Amino acid sequence: MSAVKIIGAGMAGCEAAWAVAEAGIPVMLYEMKPQKYSPAHHSPDFAELVCSNSLKASRIDSAAGLLKEEMRRLGSLLVPCAEACAVEAGGALAVDRDQFSRLVTEKIRSHPNITVVNQEISEIPEGDVIIATGPLTSDALHAPIAELTGQSLYFYDAAAPIVTGESVSMDKAFYASRYGKGTADYLNCPMTKEEYLAFYDALIHAESAQLHDFEKETLRVYEGCMPVEVLAKRGEDAIRYGMMKPVGLTDPHTGKRPYAVLQLRKENREGTLWNLVGFQTNLKWGEQKRVFSMIPGLEHAEFVRYGVMHRNSFLDSPKLLDKTYALRKEPRIRFAGQMTGVEGYMESAGSGILAGRNTVRAIQGEAPLILPPETMFGALTAYITDPYQENLQPMGANMGILPMLDQKFRGKDGKQKKYQAYADRALAALDACITAN
């Protein structure tokens, strides 16, 4: 039996290799470390955590906790390894990063069906392949991927926050078109002069996140994706004449034209998620919550994804990948990890599980494993591979991508009950899917 070639021994690559190897199929796992390191990597071990050592919340009634429970039920390698290397972190699952990477490396290297090859790959191998080279894919492999897909990996330098639609206060926001053209597809948050000036002052004095040294030079030239806080510092009216200009808008609550307006655009077809148009930012996450919540209508906004600015290569997955993470035009090749448009350690790892399991099913002539949209991974996969999705921004696990519940939950514990209901529905759907497959 021919071996499945998996490129990259990060979180996604390790999960993919484990899923394939556990099915009794040989794996050739290619990893360029320690011969060559990306600017962000330093350890020769696999599944290196380059930023935080936190894998987020453990509670089942949280998006991150639900995600990990789904991974456990799908046969994850990394979840039990993380639990074995856990350090105290309140309600989160945090790990001793060195111990975690060593344990994963030992598990992978000792598996009888996995052969590790320490080599940089510069062309895509023949046969069944899973590419999981992460957001800093080497230049040597970047070129053949660009040739294969017909486009370069996107250069992801800045992205705007995303909030849930149900958390926007409609007693202040209103629907209208963009600049008075087309249909009323945008949510508008109007501001008086006093509200704008208070917001503006908070924005220009907010604290920014630090970039890696290798990102600073690369990102400096991207004028078109300038962070909103940087543009604002050019003058009091810079953003009011830019992304916040109120041209063609009348606030139905007052009958007047706003002094400034923030517009939100649908992030998914269901309208459960909304993007803050033009608000790409490099502010710290806590600062984003504080400052953007000053905008009328967003006082109680639930941020499912904060704005980010960093170097990151990813595919235009809605046009290229199907729900098994296979390349539509050449399904022997699958992608996994952050380069598919999922964001976060465990989201990347989980995509590796699904890419691995579907590679196995394809080799064995079985129907693909498509997780129900009620599951966190099913919803996340549907989001990044939706062919109607335009201008994909990488997405992590959040309750906002799940189909809405029929039941309404009210009261001070309503949100917790709602999230528990989402989790119960997701795990029931996943168990039924696993049983059926």
How would you explain this protein's 3D organization?
By secondary structure, the chain is α+β, with helices and mostly antiparallel strands. It has two domains: 4-156 and 312-436, FAD/NAD(P)-binding domain (3-Layer(bba) Sandwich), CATH 3.50.50; 162-305, Elongation Factor Tu (Ef-tu), domain 3. 33% of the residues lie in helices and 16% in strands. The chain has helices spanning 11-22, 63-73, 78-84, 97-110, 139-149, 193-204, 213-219, 228-232, 285-292, 317-320, 345-363, 376-385, 414-436; strands spanning 4-7, 27-31, 54-57, 86-87, 92-95, 114-118, 129-131, 154-155, 162-164, 174-178, 181-191, 260-266, 273-276, 303-305, 313-314, 326-327, 330-335. The strands form four sheets. Strands 6-2-1-7-17-16 form a six-stranded mixed β-sheet, covered by helices on one side. A hairpin with a 2-residue loop joins β10 (174-178) and β11 (181-191). α2 packs parallel to α13. The longest helix has 23 residues, at 414-436. It is globular and about 70 Å long. The two termini are 23 Å apart. Mean pLDDT is 89; it is low at 217-224.
Can you describe this structure in just a few lines?
33% of the residues lie in helices and 16% in strands. The chain contains 13 helices and 17 strands.
Percent of residues in helical segments? 25-40%
Order of helices and strands: EHEEHHEEHEEHEEEEHHHEEHEEHEEHHH
Total domains, how many? 2
Going across the biggest sheet, name each strand in turn: 6-2-1-7-17-16
Oligomeric grouping of the chains: single chain
What is the beta-strand fraction? Answer: 15-25%
Q: Can you tell me the residue ranges where pLDDT is under 50 for at least 5 consecutive residues?
A: 217-224
Euclidean distance between termini CA atoms: 23 Å
